[in-house]
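= Protein in question =
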Amino acid sequence: MEKRKELTVSAIENGTVIDHIPADSLFKVISTMQIETMDTTITIGNNLDSNRLGKKGIVKISDKYPSIEDMNKIALIAPTARINIIKDYKVSNKQKVEIPDNIVGMFKCMNPKCITNNEKMKTKFAVVEKNGNLQLKCHYCEKHTDQEHFETI
């Protein structure tokens, strides 16, 4: 007799589910959102089977809802992610993250000579490539940074 291989994760009453995260981006999402510092119930699943991605990650966060800045961060790291807002155990809002055109104060410029790395000022980037390998261009020094090299502030 073949045993079923299934893991049941309890539903959350209220909070956020971040789904369809590429498996190789899950821990970057967790780190960028500082999920490890939250004082609520968090469920994390990785390398789950996905028809769309092959393998995916998922994060369930009880009693917390993402800000616009959080959603922008997720979009930049995991552009395939979906945000589900849960209220009374039901999905009240479901949306795909969207990569913004401009990024302010989220990531460090990779140019050590950039003014933002030498003076107290917020970084500013224009998103110059959204499809494929995401590219940001620094407003001040014009250095391009790809998705693999994003470093959060």
Observations:
- The beta strands are 15-22, 42-50, 54-62, 82-87, 90-96, 102-104, 124-129, 135-138, 144-146.
- DSSP finds two helices and nine strands in the chain.
- Residues 68-77 form the longest helix (10 residues).
- The chain has a mean pLDDT of 89.
